[in-house]
From TrEMBL, chain A:
Species per Swiss-Prot/TrEMBL record: Oharaeibacter diazotrophicus
EC number: 2.8.1.12
Taxonomic lineage of the native organism: Bacteria, Pseudomonadati, Pseudomonadota, Alphaproteobacteria, Hyphomicrobiales
Subunit structure: Heterotetramer of 2 MoaD subunits and 2 MoaE subunits. Also stable as homodimer. The enzyme changes between these two forms during catalysis.
Family: Belongs to the MoaE family.
Protein name: Molybdopterin synthase catalytic subunit
Domain of life, per lineage: Bacteria
First and last residue of the signal peptide: none
Pathway: Cofactor biosynthesis; molybdopterin biosynthesis
UniProtKB/TrEMBL annotation, chain B:
Protein name: Molybdopterin synthase subunit MoaD
Organism classification: Bacteria, Pseudomonadati, Pseudomonadota, Alphaproteobacteria, Hyphomicrobiales
Short name of one Pfam family: ThiS
The organism of origin for this protein: Oharaeibacter diazotrophicus
SUPFAM superfamilies: MoaD/ThiS
Length: 155, 87
């Protein structure tokens, strides 16, 4: 049975330690947990905050589809957690957590990277920049490098 | 006319159109997703501005990504938005 992904889209912050603990609590078969934490950076002091807009319903569904694909590609994954926040997030704030568990590190590392690459290009979220000097600088443009990262996984 | 469909817009597509959602009756001649985008662009200056570069517009039918050359079919909800920047 592939791992059943735990996908959450929420305004609230999350506790990274508690989420990692949850991935292996009470189990004896997990040898590796890999995690990626995405944070809001201030772009050299330029930004006051990022505002994340999302498509309610599709955001959860699309992350779920990507996570289900990861669970099929790496069948030894024992658990997958993806949490993505929306709303206004100040520099230093947490935006996204991807955490994967497996018996050995290879699957956990690879699946976490796969998940992040596809979240970037498929999950319906958009970032708007709010400036430290006031006002907004508009919407962050998508990067072609992100499409190339995701393209690496085609097979 | 076909059944009413809910249209939803996000990020700068929403801002340029000037509202987040609406319910419309689509004409029957729209064969593909691209035909829909072209028809929407003709609905006024705000739509023309939002959709001035059709290739930059992403479309989801009932919350599934689709390419512009795919058939439109008869979805209940259609979303238009810019390339995504989450993660």
């Amino acid at each position: 049975m592939p791992a059943v992904p735990d996908v959450r889209v929420q305004a609230d912050d999350f506790d990274v330690g508690a989420e990692i603990e949850r991935l292996h609590a009470g189990r004896r078969d997990v040898g590796a947990v890999a995690s990626f934490l995405g944070l809001c950076r201030d772009e050299g002091g330029r930004l006051a905050a990022l505002e994340l807009e999302h498509y309610p319903g599709m955001a959860e569904a699309e992350i779920g589809r990507v996570a289900a694909e990861a669970a099929l590609r790496w069948p030894d994954l024992t658990a997958v957690t993806v949490i993505h926040r929306f709303g206004r997030i100040a520099p230093g704030g947490r935006i996204v957590l991807v955490a994967t568990a497996s018996p050995h590190r290879g699957s956990a590392f690879a699946a976490a990277e796969f998940l992040m690459d596809f979240l970037k290009t498929r999950a319906p979220f958009w970032k708007k920049e709010h400036l430290a000097e006031g006002g907004d600088a508009g919407w962050v443009a998508a990067k072609s490098a992100d499409d190339e990262q995701a393209g690496r996984w085609r097979r | 006319m076909t059944a009413p469909v809910r249209l939803v817009y996000f990020a700068w597509v929403r801002e340029r159109i000037g509202f987040a959602d609406e319910t419309v009756e689509l004409p029957e001649h729209l064969g593909t997703v691209g035909d829909l985008v072209a028809w929407l662009a003709g609905r006024g200056d705000n739509f023309a501005y939002a959709l001035e570069q059709p290739a930059a517009i992403r479309v989801a039918l009932d919350q599934m990504h689709v390419a512009h050359d795919e058939p439109l079919g008869s979805p209940r909800e259609i979303a238009l938005f810019p390339p995504m920047t989450g993660g």
